[in-house]
Amino acid sequence: MTNDLNSRKPLRFCDLQKEYSLCAQEILDVLSDPIRKADFCNGEQVRLFEQEFAAYHALAYSSGVGSGTDALFLAMKSLGVGEGDEVIVPSNSFVSTALAVYYNRATPVFCDCTADTWELDPKSAERCITPRTKAIVPVHLYGQSCDMDRIRALAECHDLTVIEDCAQAHGALYKGKKVGTMSDAACFSFYPTKNLGAIGDAGAVITPHSYIKERVDRLRNLSLDKRTGDHTEIGYNMRMDSLQAAVLRHKLPNIDGVIARRTQIAMTYLREIRNPHVVPQTVGEGCGPVWNLFCVYVSDRNRFLRHMEDRQIFCGIHYAVPCHLQGAFRYLGYSRGDLPNCESLAEHCVTLPLFPDMDDTDLQRVIEACNQFTQ
């Protein structure tokens, strides 16, 4: 009877209610400090989190901001991206990466992904380079690093700035180095579903350069010079609030434990899903993924989703429309067929349930359902 009841329990690809039901009192406790001090915006907790997050990456500088999108926008602006520039971004990414380029009045230029790792394809990126190309943004998609050796070599050859989008890849490794440490600036999101998630929106820019830290800090706070009261240039209200920083400080020491559990679940999927119609992302050479999302390529997505929902397993789609075909970027003139790997992935990708508090019974439910799927 117990197994039958478990098989009917709805299972989603990410269960935040379960996560926070187990730590609700802890979260309330850590919020008491900034609330008691009435220190709500860009305060002490933010400064402490910046120090700790930078130290986690063995870098000198970190700036807390309002969201991952803010981080991308401010990093690009701080590195001189502006009107007339082109920035190469992968089309299989959340739309924020390309929107940050647009917000800086530059032009996003979309490149394809590889057919197996689904990360940015350096060969496709190289074909996108023009005299106007200013930067390239490798997105470490689903929690796996891009091929940073080839991307950095490409950038060096063509004098391009590299800005890493690490929104899904906190703690991921490439040849022993943490993502975010192989560029001039790297951007993180702490949206609640991330491996290091806040209880709302938050983000960060990390960098080895003091001038980028100083520019991001100034821009995020309306470009206010506190000594003179002068707003020295057009700035933005993109600060991290202290409540989010307090939660992130509480969770940061356990991030490696979260990654270890996610990896354990992912390795079980990779080992036990043996269906040729359910193909996982290939792990690239030298990559140590953190499995923020476990995505698979299925032969018939609609049929697969119905098959899983019949078993009360609810999957996600990341992402159903590649960026170059999004309505927001229709003005750029891309057409279906321009980036075939991204388009194929968008038509066939499914995100399986994977979250740290997922129990082994639910894990086996997903594996069994995947293995039972027929074309």
What's the quick description here?
The chain has helices at 2-8, 16-21, 24-37, 44-56, 68-78, 96-103, 122-127, 148-158, 210-220, 242-251, 255-272, 301-309, 340-348, 360-372; strands at 11-12, 61-65, 86-90, 107-111, 133-136, 161-165, 173-174, 177-178, 185-189, 203-207, 224-225, 230-231, 278-280, 287-288, 294-298, 313-314, 349-352. It is of the alpha/beta class and 375 residues long. It has two domains: 2-21 and 254-372, Aspartate Aminotransferase, domain 1 (Alpha-Beta Complex); 24-251, Aspartate Aminotransferase, domain 2 (3-Layer(aba) Sandwich), CATH 3.40.640.10.
Q: What Rg is obtained from the alpha carbons, in whole angstroms?
A: 21 Å
Q: Residue share in helices?
A: 25-40%
Q: What CATH architecture of the largest domain would you give?
A: 3-Layer(aba) Sandwich
Helix/sheet category:
alpha/beta
Mean pLDDT equals 96
Q: Taking strands numbered 1, 2, ... along the chain, how are they ordered across the largest sheet?
A: 2-10-9-6-5-3-4
Under the CATH scheme, which class of the largest domain? Alpha Beta
In one word, what is the shape?
globular
Main β-sheet description: 7 strands, mixed
Strand content: 15-25%
| Fourth CATH level, the homologous superfamily of the largest domain | Type I PLP-dependent aspartate aminotransferase-like (Major domain)
Q: What is the end-to-end distance?
A: 31 Å
Count of individual beta strands: 17
Number of domains: 2
CATH topology of the largest domain: Aspartate Aminotransferase, domain 2
